[in-house]
Structure formats: structure tokens, C-alpha cells
Amino acid sequence: TNPLCYGIPSDDNFPFVIDCATSINQRGKIERYAREGLDTPRGAVIDNDGIQRTDTEGILHDLVLGKAALTPLGGADAELGGYKGYGWATVVELMSIAFQSGLFGEGISGVDRETGEKRPMPLGHYFLAIDIEALTPIDTFKKNVGEFLRALRGSKKSPLGPGRIWTAGELEYDEFVRQADQGGMSVPPSLQSVMKDLRDQRPGLKEKYGKLPFE
After folding, report:
1. Rounded Cα gap, residues 215 and 209, in angstroms
2. Longest dimension (CA), the chain
3. Is pLDDT above 80 for 133?
4. Distances (CA, A) of 117 to 21, 65, 102, 121, 122
5. Which of these, 167, 162, 116, lies nearest to 10 by C-alpha position?
6. Are 124 and 102 in contact (CB under 8 A)?
């Protein structure tokens, strides 16, 4: 899904952190739809016949075989700017393969398309760290970031919205605080089932995790 990820320090209690795919949905979200028995939203996946798919189980099957694909941010058409998501996805791919002469496309699908057998995924990554102090004092940088983010959160709200504007990383911070206050995170039943199946199927895990916290 060629994600773009940024972490920017702020003088808020939490940094600005965004980690998102350059596709409308990532595969993990579709797997979640499958666990919850939900259809995939129209426009997130397109198949080789140009049909926008919503059948979640069929989508997961065809993604492996190369018969379906995740659409880029903006969708499959130019009207809503799909070419922008396509362009950003290409940037991520180029930065992740060009420096290391890495594989791309089917080479990192994790599956042999002819046999269906799993195979290694030699994924490439690109990281860039900026020395803020080389350009400006860190406290000044954090103050500038915080002022801008607070201005965003203080913008005019839609009368039809939830009454609040979040910035990237804020929802996760709120959830962290909530879970810390209640002594830990809750695990939904569908994920509990997956965790138990993994434990029971993998050698050695049954002995190590005889009883999970939610059992």
C-alpha cells in the first residue's frame, strides 16, 4: 500500500504522527472487514475487469492472485484526483527500490502467482531523519508546530460534524490515555479468536501462552 509516514515533534502532549497508505484502504483494513463480516466500501478495490468490488472474501482471494488491486487515494478515476494518490504511491515505491535495487510489483507480493505458494517479501524502505537543531532551536520548532496544529483544531467546525477537529496522532493519544486509565487495552472478540487460533497452531506458543489475559 506504499505508506507515507511522518513524525513531527510538537509542544503539545503528543507529536504529530501520520502513517497512512497511499491507497484508499490497506489490506489490513479489508482483513478487518472480513473478520467483522462486512462488505468493503465501493471504490476501494478494482478488479481486472474494471469492476469496483465490495465482496470482501473474494477481494482477499483475488488480491493474492493479482486479479484485484487496491485503488489509490482519490479512487480509480481522474475526476476525484486518483492520479494524485497514484503519483504519491509511485514516489514511495521509487524511494524504496532505487537506492537498494530492490524488487517491486509481483516480486514483493509474498506469493508465487502461478502456484499460490508463499514466498519471502524483500521489502525496501526509505527513512529520512532531519536534525532540527541544525536549522532552528528545537523548542522554537515545537512551538511553531504546536501553534499551527492548535489553530487547525480551533478552526470552524461543521454543524453536521462531531464538534471537534483532530490532528494526526491525537486520536491515538486520546485512546492511549483512555486505555491507560482502565488498566490496558480491550481486544474485540473477532481478534481474540484469531489470537487463540495462532497460539494453538504455532509450535511452542501453546506452552508459552497457555492462557491469554482475556480468557
Report:
1. 11
2. 56
3. yes
4. 26, 11, 21, 12, 16
5. 167
6. yes
Mean pLDDT of 184-212: 88
CA distance 21 to 93: 12
For the four alpha carbons of 42, 46, 50 and 56, in that order, the dihedral sign comes to: negative
From the CB of residue 15, how many other CB atoms can be counted at a distance below 10 Å? Answer: 19
Cell numbers representing residue 26 in the block: 490497506
Pairing of strands 45-47, 68-70: antiparallel
Q: Is this model's pTM higher than 0.90 or not?
A: no
32 class by beta-carbon count within 10 Å (0-12 exposed, 13-18 middle, 19+ buried): middle
Confidence category of residue 103, pLDDT binned at 50, 70, 90: confident
Q: Which three cell numbers stand for residue 134?
A: 541544525
Q: Name the pLDDT band for 122 (thresholds 50, 70, 90).
A: confident
Nearby residues of 170 by Cβ (< 8 Å), 6 or more positions away? 14, 153
Mean of all residue pLDDT scores within the chain = 91
Q: Which amino acid belongs to residue 193?
A: S
Are 52 and 46 a contacting pair, CB within 8 Å? yes
